[in-house]
Amino acid sequence: MREVPLEKNPNITAAELLALHEGAWRWAFSILRDRSRTDDVMQTVYEQILCGAARFSGRSSLKTWLYGVVRNTAHASLRRKNRRLQLVSVLAADAAAGAAVDHAGGSGREGRYKRLGEILRALPQRQREVLELSIYRDFSLQECAAVMGIGLGAVRTHYHRGKQKLRELLGADDGTG
Q1: Angle, in degrees to the nearest 10, between helices 14-32 and 90-98
Q2: What is the pLDDT of residues 110-164, one digit of tens each?
Q3: Cα angle vertex 47, ends 43, 50, to 5°?
Q4: Could you read off the pLDDT of 59-116 as tens digits, one per residue?
């Protein structure tokens, strides 16, 4: 059976969106850190896509475009509620989302996830975003730039400074820094 493109977004099919949903939801969750708000934001994202308010033109990959729409919608949600933006690593999000599923993980693993999340939250916002997208979401730096709406040079700067700061924080955490 041939997939039918969306009426208001003819470059996208429902199957393509469905294939990207879990990763996009986790990306939104890593920004919002709240399941209910994440669900609300994802509903808004899909409404924008279905009604054509967010249109995919094909200038980037669908994944890059969708993550950008999710990011912008999540940030708009945070601004509307006048809340300080807080991002967390995918590992911390995975630990929170998977805690109910993985009871065998033990407190040691959960403690490491929690500590890594704390260390990553110590990074400036843009550095956290670039590291999360590039390392945990397997985005290229060019794709990170498209998702974040900033230049490639700025992404490279945030990436390198973020890695350097992360090394410093991890070294201090281990008692070697």
Answers
A1: 100
A2: 676 677 778 888 899 999 999 888 877 778 888 899 999 999 999 999 999 998 9
A3: 135
A4: 999 999 999 999 999 988 887 654 333 333 444 444 444 444 444 444 566 676 677 7
Instruction: Looking at the structure, tell me whether residues 128 and 72 fall in a common domain.
Output: no
- Token pair for 96: 């929170």
CA angle at 64 for the pair 62 and 70, rounded to the nearest 5°? 100
Residue 103 lies in a domain: no
Q: Domain containing 24: what range? A: 1-86
Amino acid at 56: F
In 3-state terms, what secondary structure has residue 137?
A: coil
Q: What does pTM read for this prediction?
A: 0.59
- The radius of gyration of the chain from alpha carbons, rounded to an integer in Å, stands at 17
Provide the β-strand partners of residue 5. 13
Q: Give the number of residues written for the chain.
A: 177
Contact in structure between 49 and 13 (CB atoms under 8 Å): no
**What are the E-state strand segments in 90-161?**
none
Domain boundary among 38, 71, 86: 86
Q: Are residues 122 and 50 in the same domain?
A: no
- The position carrying tokens 């498209």 is 146
Amino acid identity of residue 3, one-letter, is E
Tokens in use for 24? 């996009």
How many domains, the chain? 2
